[in-house]
Design brief:
The structure is a homodimer of 338-residue chains. Chain A has 338 residues and is α/β, with parallel strands linked by helices. Chain A contains 13 helices and twelve strands. Chain A has helices at residues 4-11, 15-22, 32-44, 51-58, 74-89, 106-114, 131-138, 162-175, 191-206, 224-235, 249-262, 279-282, 295-312; strands spanning 63-68, 93-98, 120-123, 144-147, 157-160, 181-185, 217-219, 243-246, 271-275, 289-292, 317-320, 326-328. A six-stranded parallel sheet of chain A has the order 2-1-3-4-5-11, sandwiched between helices. A six-stranded mixed sheet of chain A has the order 7-6-8-9-10-12, sandwiched between helices. In chain A, helix 12 (279-282) links the parallel strand 9 and strand 10 (289-292). In chain A, helix 10 (224-235) crosses helix 11. Chain A is elongated and about 85 Å long. At the A-B interface, helix 4, helix 5, strand 2, helix 6 and helix 11 of A face helix 4, helix 5, strand 2, helix 6 and helix 11 of B. Chain A binds a DNA duplex (30 and 30 nucleotides) through residues 1, 3-5, 13-17, 19-20, 23, 25, 27, 29-31, 34, 49-50, 52-59, 116.
Chain lengths: 338, 338
DNA sequence: TCACTCTGCGCAAACGATTGACCACATGTC
DNA sequence: GACATGTGGTCAATCGTTTGCGCAGAGTGA
């Protein structure tokens, strides 16, 4: 391993001179000739600063942790990409942690922050995590930004405009003349599910429709299996809906598959619109009408927020509105037949 | 931050005593009473060893890097889970790097290893990376294990039994009486694509079928769009195949969607079997018959291999055969009508 | 010439954990 | 009594980087 000392020896100067030159420190008062010798020596020896040495000395790692509950879908990949792009531009790295089922990833947060492996964290809590578990994590006083959830008294969160996303999806069905519209939503305690419920109902209200009743809003979850369950429940109603807003694209994919299996024709018998878009939505049958949410921008915003928290102490509760949620019309939705 | 010194002060001993006790060092000769005091002090102060200090001193991080070209599908998630499970059991962490389009992630390997952020790496090179780029990475003499590709002279790779996987898929179609079977394969230079081609052709040969000709093997790639392209190409042949083996589940999903759009009925007109299974394959229409490959086991094996390389210097070229590839029959394949 | 200031660097002390060397004391052996 | 052995620890060096401080020598103004 090449150290500062090696470079210094080759350039015939002291380690401090090398350090100052290589990190462009303002206090680096060296002649142009010396600077050149140092740079050349570093280049020839392929010097790379040692991460541990630097982190130990400066008590900063320039790494931020990202903890998500699930990464089996393309949405997460987009989020991670945005986060990594933003991090790279600011000379940070992203360390992907794993939030296990138990304790909302509290252990991983403790490890990463407690052992000084990261300077701050972006945490997305799982759908089914009770708020109690969250408190313990946030109590650590470490720079933490929550993703898609807000917690009493914790300012430091980045959320989608889920209300608007759900509203867009609902309005699309309303424009197609649907009046009996269902919502296949996430779990009740999920923050995003609550927001999407609000957007859904407000769109209905604005259209002068009274809510179709509790039974038309399932709250099973965001997985494909949950979407399947939602379809069965909704189509077994005395008056099944003619349109359904699914709060997650993975659930919509399951719902679509279950519709085929149950003989429900989409979009003829049932129009389907999902919140979230991904490459999988283009490849269902029929191709899924979806509201594209800015996952990449959210990743960027989260990293930006946590870096701001680290470097300036500023706390932000940000709503990611740019680019705005956008409806992508495909073939799973059509005009109501009545 | 709580340091060893803080714990030592509270327990009334020296830092070295604390260090030895907390790390269960064999040279820790302390009385039972002292050991207790130290443990209690550490517990009360919530001591956590500082990562940087430890890494600097020991020149080891107990972190291994995982670099993959693409993480938009569920397969990758399974791989990562396996890797993380194995790492955790051996008291390591996994750091997910990003292999950009350019230079096969050579830059990220250089950074992670060069700056001492990781002790070793698991690298899956992208499908379209020419072998030349690989050489540069492997030349760094760092502990690197390749995933699903082998490189001349580099022993340190973990691969699937792709030959067997493709063979299983092909034999399934053969048992159904298909004789005109196509292969929608990955790019020519891809190692896995070559292996899957071998398995495909050997199954045909064992069944006494002569290969149906070059045109029946497309080599477009592993994405959904590539699968769509493969379907169009194959169904435009003078004598379209009645069955197709798709070398990747994402491509199979695209192929299925394109079949619907083109009016090709699956499985009536065309039976489809894919290599790789994932939750998305259960939710296509018709549900996709697939060969389940042991992604989780591969993640574990890769981490095991790189740790072995780090700790004992042992190099391995391993074929992940347990659990063996397994055919999961769903509804996208059926008996040939002739 | 003296007292400054400025330039161009080097010295050395941290940061936190690990570990070989060493020390004081007690006990056992010849 | 001299010596070895064992017990229960402490001391101090080390890893690589950063940074406050100091120190020559050159230049400047009075």
């Amino acid at each position: 391993m090449v150290t500062l000392g090696d470079v210094a020896a080759r350039a015939g100067v002291s380690v401090s001179a090398v350090s100052r030159v290589l990190s462009n420190h303002p206090s680096a008062r060296v002649s142009e000739a010396t600077r050149c010798r140092i740079l050349q020596a570093a280049c020839e020896l392929r010097y790379r600063p040692n991460f541990a040495g630097r982190a130990l000395r400066s008590a900063r790692t320039r790494v931020i942790g990202l903890v998500v509950p699930d990464l089996t879908d393309a949405l997460f990949a987009e989020l991670l990409h945005g986060a990594q792009d933003e991090a790279r531009e600011r000379d940070y790295m992203v360390l992907l942690g794993r939030s296990d089922n138990l304790s909302a990833g509290g252990e991983v947060v403790g490890r990463l922050v407690g052992e000084g492996r990261v300077d701050g964290m972006v945490v997305q809590v799982g759908d089914g995590v009770p708020p109690a578990g969250l408190g313990a994590i946030l109590a650590s006083a470490a720079p933490i930004v929550l993703l898609n959830s807000v917690y009493e008294g914790h300012v430091g969160s980045v959320v989608f405009d889920d209300v608007e996303g759900a509203r867009l999806a609902t309005e699309h069905l309303l424009r197609f003349g649907h009046t009996r519209i269902a919502l296949a939503n996430g779990l009740r305690r999920s923050y995003t599910a609550r927001q999407r419920g609000i957007g859904f109902r407000s769109a209905l209200a604005e259209a002068g429709l009274r809510p179709a009743g509790r039974a038309y809003e399932t709250r099973l979850g965001y997985t494909a299996a949950d979407g399947r369950g939602a379809l069965r429940r909704l189509m077994n109603l005395p008056e099944p809906p003619t349109g359904v807003v699914v709060a997650n694209v993975d659930a919509a994919i399951g719902l679509l598959a279950e519709a085929r299996a149950a003989g429900v024709r989409v979009p003829r018998d049932l129009s389907v619109v999902s919140v979230h878009d991904s490459w999988t939505a283009e490849n269902t049958w029929p191709p899924l009408t979806a509201v594209r949410m800015p996952f990449s921008a959210m990743g960027r915003a989260a990293v930006r927020a946590v870096i701001a928290r680290i470097e300036t102490g500023a706390m932000t509760a940000e709503l990611v509105g740019d680019p705005a949620p956008e409806l992508v019309v495909r073939e799973s939705s059509t005009r109501s037949r009545r």
